[in-house]
Amino acid sequence: MNGAEFVPLSLTPILIGVLAAIACALPGNFLVLRKQALIGDAISHVVLPGIVVAFLITGAVAAAPMMLGAAGAALIAVAMIEAIRRLGNIEPGAAMGLTFTTLFAAGVLLLEQSDTSSVHLDVEHALYGNLESLIWLDAMGWQSLFDPIALAGLPPELGRVAVALMGVIGFLWLFWRPLMISTFDESFAQAMGVATNRLGVALVMVAALAAVAAFDAVGSIIVIAMFICPPAAARLMTNRLEHQVVWSVVFAALSALLGYVFAGYGPLWLGFDHAVSAAGMIATVSGAILAIAAVCAPHRHRSGAPAT
Amino acid sequence: MFWDALTLQLGYNASLVTVGATLLGISAGVTGTFLYLRKRALVSDAISHATLPGVGIAFIVMVALGGDGRALPGLLLGAAVSSWIGLLCVSWLTRLTRLSEDAAIGAVLSVFFGFGIVLLTIIQTMGAGRAAGLESFLLGATAGMLFNDALVIAAGGTLTLLAVLILRRPMTLLAFDPEYAATRGINVARMDLAIMALAMAVTVIGLKIVGLILIVAMLIIPPVTARFWTDRTDQMALISGLCGGLAAWIGASMSAVAPAMPTGPIIVLVSFALFALSLMLAPNRGVLAAYLRHRRFQRRVHMRQGLLALAQSQPIYEAYTMRLLKQAKLALPDGVPTDAGRARAAKALRDEKRWELVRADQAFESAAALYDGLRDIETVLTADQINEIDQRIGGPKEVTP
C-alpha cells in the first residue's frame, strides 16, 4: 500500500481511533480500581438523549451543541444516580441501571418521534459510530502532512479527540497524587485533606468528557470497551499504578490499531470483499487482549490467593 | 383506540403480543427481585448485551444451512447460547482473576456487543434485505410480528413464570442467607446459576419485544419499585411482578395503537413512572414519608425544648418554637405560659429530672438505654417504678411565671 492511498483513507481514522481509545483508557484505570467501571457504560448510554435534545433545540447536526448536550446529559445522569441512591437508599448498581436505561429509552423515544429523517442521526450511528467515514479527502500522500492547505481539511473530529485527550492528560497530571491516594485509601486521603467526594465527581466528569468526545467520533461501543478492557488487562500485568497506566495506553492503542486494520483488511485477506465494522472489531480486539491477559498475565491472581 | 388495545380488542396477533409482553413483564419483575436482593442487578446487563453475537451466528448458520435466517426460535437459541457463554466469562473473570465483578461485566458486555456488531456488518454484506429484521433486536419491535413469533414469546413468558414460581423458596433463602441455605441442603452455586438462567430466559424472550439494550430495565426497575412498598420477599416479588406486568401491558398496547412508537422505550418509561411515584409516595421508605417524619421529629424537639424553657422561665427566641406553643395554647403571644402550659412545663421538667435519676441508676440500665431526649418516661417504666423515682426526687416545685 502506498502513501497516496493510506494517508487520505486510513491515517486519520486510525489516529482518531487511537487517540479516542487512549483518552477513554486513561480515566478508565481509576474507574476500574474504584469499582466504578460501569459508570463508563452508564455515561455512554445517556449521551444519546443528550445529543437528541441538543438536536431538537438547535435543529441542526452541529458538533458544539451536541457535545454540550451530551455533557449535560452525563451530568444529569450522575446527579440522578446519586439522588436515587441517597433518597431511595438503593444499591448503586441498581440505581445506575435504572438511570441509564430510563434516559436511553427517553432518547430513543424522542428520536423516533421527532423528524430526523433528513439528517444522519439514528440509534445505530450512536452505537457504533462512523470511524470508517472520517477520511481526509484533501490529502495526496505523506507530503500532505506538511501542507497547510491540506491540513485545514482534516476531519474536525481529530482535533476534538486530541483536545479531549489533552484535557484528560492534564487532569491526571495535575491531580495524580490525590487521585492515587484517594483511590487506594479513601480515609487516608481525607485525613490528608483531599476533598475525596469532589475529586470523585471530577474524575467522573473527566471520564464523561472523554466519552463524549470519543462518542462523537467512534460511537458508544468503543467507549465502553476502552473504559474497561485495556485498564482491566493492564491491572493483570502489574502491581504498580504507573506501570498499569502505561500498559493500558499500550493496550488501548494496540486495540485501536489492530481493530481498524482487521476490520478494513482482514476480510480481504480471507477472500471476502467487504470491510466489517471497525468499532465492533476494535472492541473485539480489546476483549481478545483482556482474555490473553486473564490467561497468562503475571499478576492475574488476587494477591494472597492460593496458586492454582 | 388505546382502550381497545388494553382490552385486547385489536385482533388476534396484537392481543397475543400484548399477553406475551405482560407475561414476560411479570416474570421479569419476579426474577429481577431475586437478582436485586442478591445485589447482582447489573449482571443482567452483561447477559443482554452478550446475546447479540449469538443472534448473528444463528442467522449465519441458518442461512448457510439453506433455511430462513430470521426464524425466531433459532435466533433465540443462538442468543441463549452466547449469553450463557458471556455469563460464564463474567464468573470466570471474577473467580480466577483479581478483576472485580463490575469490571468483568463491563468487559463482557462491551466485547460481546462489539463482536455482535462485527457479525451484523458481515450479515449485511451477505445479501441486502435479508438482514433487515436483525436490527430490531437492538431496540425491539412488535409491529409486524408474525403469529408464530408471538406464540413463542407468549409460551416462553409462561414457562419462565412457572419456573420462577417453582424455585421461589430456595431463591428467597439464598437471597438473604447463603450460608443457611447451604446448610439446608441447597447447592448455592447451582441455585445462583438457576437465577442467572431465569434472567437469561427473560432476556432472550424479551429480545424481540424490548430489545437487548433496554431489557435490563425490566429486570431492574420493577424490583427497585417494589422494594419501597414492603419489607417481605414474597410481597416484594408479587408487587414487582405486578409493576413489570403493568408496564409491559401498557407499553405493548400503546405500540399496538401507534406502530411508530417503539415498544421497549415505552415499557421502560412506564416502569420508571411507577418507580418515581413509589420513590415519592411510598409509606415509610418514600421521600414524602421521610419528609413528614422529619417534620414530626422537628416539632417534638421544638415542643420539648420550649416546655423546658417555660418551666425554667427562660425567654424563647426561636420563632418556630413560639409558634408551636401558641398553636397548642400553651403560651400567650408575649411568651407567658397559660395554665395548661404551666402544667405541661412542670411535667416536662419533672420527667427530665426522672430521666436523670434513671440514667444514673444501674438498676434501670435497660430503660436508660432507650433514652433519646424525646421519649415519654411512661412508655418505658411502670407506674410503680415512676413512683419510686418520684419519692427520691421529693415533692413537686411550683413554676414561677
Explain this structure to me?
The complex is a heterodimer of chains A (308) and B (401). Chain A is built from 13 helices and no strands. By secondary structure, chain A is mainly α. The radius of gyration of chain A is 20 Å and the shape is globular. Chain B is mainly α. The model of chain B has no long low-confidence stretch (mean pLDDT 85).
What labels describe this entry?
heterodimer, A: mainly alpha, 13 helices, 0% strand, globular, B: 401 residues, mainly alpha, 73% helix
**Which residues of chain A form runs of ≥5 with pLDDT under 50?**
none
Question: How many DSSP H or I helices of chain A?
Answer: 13
Q: How many extended strands of chain A?
A: 0
Any idea what the radius of gyration of chain A is? 20 Å
Oligomer: heterodimer
Overall radius of gyration of chain B: 31 Å
* Portion of residues within helices of chain B: over 70%
Rough outline of chain B? elongated
Main pleated sheet of chain B: none
Number of helical segments with 4 or more residues of chain B: 19
Succession of helices and strands of chain A:
HHHHHHHHHHHHH
Helix content of chain A: over 70%
Given as residue ranges, the uncertain stretches of chain B (5+ residues, pLDDT < 50) are: none
Structural class per helix/strand content of chain B? mainly alpha
SSE topology:
The complex is a heterodimer of chains A (308) and B (401).
Chain A: H1 3-33, H2 37-58, H3 63-88, H4 92-113, H5 123-128, H6 148-151, H7 156-174, H8 176-184, H9 186-191, H10 196-218, H11 220-235, H12 241-269, H13 278-296
Chain B: H1 2-6, H2 12-37, H3 43-49, H4 51-64, H5 72-96, H6 101-126, H7 136-139, H8 147-166, H9 168-176, H10 178-183, H11 188-210, H12 215-227, H13 233-257, H14 263-281, H15 287-311, H16 319-327, H17 339-360, H18 365-368, H19 383-393
